[in-house]
Structure formats: structure tokens, C-alpha cells
Amino acid sequence: MGHAEAGVGVRKLQPLFALLVPVVLIAGAAYADRDDTPRTFDAATEVRATSGAWFCPHGGGPEGWEVQLQVANPGERSATVRVLTLNGEKAGEPESFEVPAGGFLRIPVESRGRERSSMVEWFGQWVAVGWLAHAGGGEGGVAAEPCAPAAGGRWFLPDGATDVKGDHDYVVVMNPFAREAVFSITLLSERREPVQQGSLTDVALRPFRSVAFDVGDVLLGEPTVSALVDVSVGRVAAATLGVSGTGGIRSALGYLGRPAGTLTFPGGADAGQTRLVVMSAGDPNDRERVSLEGEVLVEEGPPQVFAGLADASMPPSSARTFPTTTTGPTSVRFTASGEDVAAVRRTFGVVSDQAAVTGAEPAASWIVLPAVAGEPSNPGLVLTNPGTEPAVLTLSYLSPGPADQIELTVPPGATVEAPEGFLRVAPEAGVWVRAISGTIIPAAASYSLGHDGFATYAVALGIAVPEGVL
Questions:
Q1: Stretch (H or E) spanning 123
Q2: Phi-psi region of 59 (alpha: psi -120 to 50; beta: other; left: phi over 0)
Q3: Which of 78, 163, 170, 246 could crosslink 241 through cysteines, CB 3.0-4.6 Å?
């Protein structure tokens, strides 16, 4: 790759509002020198875990960018979180905060440099963590995304393109541990063979560092460029960051390990166009094509055909973008025959901003973090039920939101919007979505800022609450 973006030294976090209560736990030097690694949470084996970590490869930009970590605690006990922000230099000191039971916090972090990343360790009570980035310094738009609950050795990053002048797509990789990580990146596209040149091979990333690669430095002029990150030493977390020269940003957390064969991508409030960006990372020597299927789950009526995926297939070790039109709240249910296939749904706001959302499988309990960066705003929350039975839900706010709670039903195979009146009560607070019966997949799909609150657009998948943590 031509070069990796470098950042500047970590500054201290900005003063926070009254809910943030700093707690000094350890000195930064002791933290950087320790040999153990943060404990990650696995719902299948550690349902009684009292500590864990979230990894947030959010990226950043020039001076004027603002990045906030969003932390939600749906439990009955307070949680302590410890935040460390990383770039290409030696990490600064971590800062710690108390998250009250049933509470929601926004924590500003350093944002200069494309490679910016953050680690959030939690203690005493499980929390959900995501990020909200507002571009500045001549760049615009908002991007929101959940953080990763684990680091690992293989990441699928479908979302990328290098065919529009002035646009830049980055791969952000973070090493949040006390040991060096070594990884290689393979770029997949529509018209070329897989690319893995010298600057992408055996990249050594020092402890507590992060790095960003501009994929256009290697593969320019491609309508789709996806990345496969293979780690040979250590563990990392990775995401993509797209910056449009005509306005708007988007980010998409990668898939850790092999994605599920069927995924659902909720969305809504867009300008009417959906692009499904698909990567197939199978063996390039395998001649069997991967078959793809897709349908759009709408508010009323049977699922619709995803036009761009009709009779679609693709060879292994390639990437391709499939378009369709959408109206109102919609979700894309996507199925692939191959085992190493991943996808991201990309949508566009009514002004100039854009969004990307990864796919998920249904669950019974979710935290939905807000996707608005300030007022005025037009908040949105979409709920999709890809199952065959109705899903009966309760929606409630986390503090400092009000005690308001509503109940609604999502028909099978449908996508609906949460009532506008409920969302406007507290557009910048986290929402807890719980299924009384059935399962669901939610996402925030919101506009904010500007004269009428439509200047920026972001979509953020909800965070499933693991069974047994509350």
C-alpha cells in the first residue's frame, strides 16, 4: 500500500457532563507495561463474566472531527469503564468512568488521524458500546456503528470503492493488546485478481497502536473493493471508513470469523437506493461460483425481490456491488451458498450523507444506540422481524432518557418504524428493545444537524444483549 495514515499524540478526554464521574484506577505507565490482555466476553461460555472489553476502530480525520463513544448499561448494577484511545504512536493514559445502572453516556475521545481507535474495558456489569463520528475540518457527515465485543485473527471487510474521484475508503486496524500483532490484507474487487502486495503483507503493528490504509493507494478505479485481514500473530479488530469528497462519511465494523449464511440488514429513511456490497473470500482455485439470494422485507405486504440479486452469482476471491430501490422502512434478507461470504448494506441520505450497516441474526434483547449528532434532529428506529411469528416488543429509554415505555408488534417478515412521538422525547438517548415473544433485529436510522435536521444521515445496527448477563 502507498502509505498508512498516521495520527498525533492522545490528548486527555474533554470535560464531560455531570453523569460522567472519573475514577482513577491505575497509572498509564503501568497499563502500557502490563502483559495480560483484556478479557473478552463470550456469551456461550462466560454468562457470569464480570469484566470484558469492546474494541472500536472508529477512525478519524483532520482537526474539527468529533468522535464520541456511546456506552449503555441496561443492568441493575453500576459499571466501571476504562477508555484508552489509540493511534500510530505510544498510547496515552486510560481514563475511567462510572456508568450508572440503567444509564447511558457519551464520552468524547481524540479523533485526529484516520487510524484513531479506542478500547473500552468494562468491570462489574456488562455494557454495550458503540461510536458516533461527526466529520469536520472541511469534511462532513455522521457515521455510527457498534464496537466489536472481541478481537481475533480473521476479519471480513466488504465495504469499499475506489472509482469516484475525491472519495477515499480506509481499512482501520487496531492492536489493543500488550503484544505485537502481525497481519496481511488481501484486497478483492470486481475486475481484478486478488491483490496482496508488499506493503499489505506481514504488517507489524506494535502494542496499543492502530493504523489506517487508504485502499485507493493500491487499487484505484474499482466500483467495489473489499478487504480480508488475516492475522498471523496476535489479535486485532478492524473496520472500514469511507469519506466522500462530495460530502458524507460512513463506517462499517468488520465480521470477525466466518459470517452466517443468512443475514438481515435493517434500514430506512434513505433516499430510495440500496447497494449491497458482497465479498466472496473463498479459494481462488475453486471454480464453483457462489450463488446469492436476497429479498426486501417491507412494512406491509409480502417480501419483495431484491432486483440486483435476481439469479446472481459471483466467483470466489472477488467483490461486487448489487443495487436495488427501496421505499420507507426496509430490511434486506441475504443468503449466500458459500462459507466465506460477507456483505454490507449501503444507503444514502436525502442530502449528501451516506451510511453503511452490517447484517445480523435475530435476538430477543437489544440496545439501540442513537445515530444523531445534535439538534435539530429527525431520529428513526427501524425494527425488522425476519421470522415466521409476530414479535411483541417493549421499547424503553436508558437514563437520562425519560421513563417512557411503549409496546408494539412487528408482523412476521416485516420491517416497521418505532413511533416518531416516542423517539422525539429523547433523540440522543439509548433505547432498550426487548421481545416479550419472538425475536427482532433493530437499527437506528436518523438525520441530524443543519437548518431542518437533515444535513447528516447515519444508520447503526443495534447491539444484541447476550443471554445471562443481566
A1: strand 117-123
A2: left
A3: 170
Cis peptide bond N-terminal to 376, omega within 30: yes
Strands 117-123 and 79-86: antiparallel
How far is CA 299 from each of CA 121, 304, 328, 385, 414, rounded to the nearest angstrom?
38, 11, 8, 10, 5
- What span, in angstroms and rounded, lies between the C-alpha atoms of 222 and 163? 5
Three cell numbers written together for 183: 497481519
Binned average pLDDT, 10 residues per bin, the chain of 470 residues: 40 34 35 40 50 98 98 97 97 96 98 98 97 97 98 98 96 98 98 91 98 96 98 98 94 96 96 96 89 96 92 95 95 94 97 96 98 98 97 97 95 97 96 98 98 96 94
Sorted by where each starts, the structural domains of the chain and their CATH numbers stand as 4-146 (2.60.290.11), 365-464 (2.60.290)
Grid cell 484505484 is found at 220
Cα separation, 460 vs 142, in Å, equals 11
Q: Residue 310: what pLDDT? A: 87
Element containing residue 355 per DSSP (H, E): strand 354-358
* Distance of alpha carbon 175 from alpha carbon 184, whole angstroms: 14
Residue recorded with cell 493504523: 211
Cα separations (Å) of 102 from 21, 97, 195, 430? 15, 15, 47, 10
The grid coordinates of residue 217 equal 493507494
117: Cα separation from own chain's centroid: 13
When computed from its CA atoms, the radius of gyration of the chain, rounded to whole angstroms, is 20
**b or e along 80-114 (b: 16 or more beta carbons within 10 Å of the residue's beta carbon)?**
bbbbbbbbbbebbebbbbbbbebbbbbbebbbbbb
| 8 A C-beta contact, residue 454 and residue 378 | yes
- Quickly tell me which residue has 444521515 as its cell: 457
Strands (E), 244-348: 249-253, 255-256, 262-267, 273-280, 290-297, 304-305, 312-314, 318-325, 330-336, 341-348
